[in-house]
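Run log, item B.
One chain of 179 residues. Sequence copied directly from the ordering sheet:
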Amino acid sequence: MSTLIVVLPLDTPGAATPLEYVLSPDGRTASSHEHAVAALLPAARETIALVPAQALSWHKVELPKGSLARGAVGSPRLRALLEGVLEDRLLDDPAALHFALENDARAQAPAWVASCDRAWLRASLALLESVRRPAARVVPEAAPGAEQVQIIGTPDAPSLVYSGARGVSVLPLSAPSLD
């Protein structure tokens, strides 16, 4: 099964925005790594949208009992609960953010919530849909979990990404930031 992994750009994309992508014939190995505008993305059985580490903020929360009852995930009630729990930790208006709760989250246990700009995410996914490459999944470039360090970006704008049990941090590696 072929997989197209599209890296969402940090700025709101348009039809002329070059998108970085990886094409995999089997979902395990990469057959190509290229750039193309959305209309010229190759066809694949599945499209995955990859959210850059710089576009996400991660927050550890503990959800109250009953908050993840059957049918609660994706509900307005859960969103309101997340807004309330995260309100003091967010720099942006919660209404302007999209929240994603980690897959195995349980009530009354620590869980990670990713947040990003809602309008940016909608525009990015709408672009893929407009060229008939709708995202089957949206995944983070880096997520809390096992410790790892990566260097991402371009030679002109490299960043160091740390992910581990304490969350995800993105640090620029430009000369001024290293002084």
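Observations after the first pass:
- The longest strand covers residues 110-117.
- The chain is about 15% helix and 40% strand.
Flagged for discussion on Thursday.
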